[in-house]
Amino acid sequence: MSSARHAGALGFALAVAVGTLVVLWGLAPGPTARWVLATLSVAAWIVSAGLLFTLLAARRRPSAPTLVAHLHDRIDRERERIASELHDELGSMLIATKMTVELAGRELSAPPPALTARFASIQDALRTALALERRLSDELYPSLLRHVGLFAALRGHLARTGERTVTVTAPEDELAVTRQQALGVFRTAEAAVRGVQTATAGGPVEVSVTNSGHRLELIVSGGARTNSPAAASAEQEFAESEARAQSLGGEWYRSNGAARGERVTIRIPLPAAS
Question: Which distant-in-sequence residues (6+ apart) come within 8 Å of 133 by Cβ?
Answer without folding.
Answer: 86, 87, 90, 91, 94
